[in-house]
């Protein structure tokens, strides 16, 4: 399973590298076309595509470094780098959207003549390129926040490029150059929308909030429902990195042998992994009726169990 996971990460990494080169080449062509066409929508889309290239680079770096093993200084490894990459990508989208709004308002006040043909041609190429890259990343985007941030960049670009086509058609059919900045504002709003979910989720991970969609009452009930568990407290669940959920808690059990206590612990761990995909559990067992500072409580319980077994 580990080999398969590494192979998947390697494949995703290669796709990201190819996507980076394709995007950078396209950005250069789109920026040149936007400059000569006097199209803010096209230049906005070129800026968005350049941010996408940076997002792809950051995502690739996050995947690459997350594969490094844990160390004495970083016992959880480098999985959080991917979350930081997602956060940087989301913030960059917000900055780009604000810059687009600023320039669009300036264009509305002082309209410029826009050439529609370069707009339409470059935007159609952008739609094709961004759609292909989005399809490459879609599978991994479902479980990896880092890849999802890059995926949202590319998907948003495909949609915004469609907006540029619309603006170009409006200008071509005599609708006026004002369509160009209006579409740019719509593109900016789309960028903000696509960044919000990534921004919120990455911040939740960094603040060690519970994973999205998890019900803590259900987690508590599941642990308490395991045979042998009398109570659960000091329960914490958080995300280390994409797909890596951790949990720590204290459970109370009745007096029993150490082996029986271990069986309860394994049962709780299995339930957490099966029902909630919690792969890293730290569970402390406490015995009912024992002083927490009484080191020999388990020893006495073990001795009592041994005596009962001897009688039988």
Query: Which CATH first-tier class of the largest domain would you pick?
Result: Mainly Alpha
List the helices and strands in order. Answer: HHHHHHHEEHEH
The biggest sheet amounts to: 3 strands, mixed
Low-pLDDT ranges? 1-8, 292-299
Shape: elongated
For the record, the count of structural domains works out to 2
Topology:
Layout (H helix, E strand, L loop, with lengths): L1 H36 L2 H27 L13 H30 L6 H26 L3 H28 L6 H28 L9 H9 L4 E13 L2 E10 L4 H19 L1 E10 L9 H15 L1
Parallel strand pairs: 2-3
Antiparallel strand pairs: 1-2
Describe the protein in words.
The chain is mainly alpha-helical and 312 residues long. It folds into 2 domains: 2-206, Alpha-lytic protease prodomain-like (Up-down Bundle); 216-311, Alpha-Beta Plaits, CATH 3.30.70.1350. It is 70% helix and 11% strand. It has helices at residues 2-37, 40-66, 80-109, 116-141, 145-172, 179-206, 216-224, 258-276, 297-311; strands spanning 229-241, 244-253, 278-287. Helix 8 (258-276) links the parallel strand 2 (244-253) and strand 3.
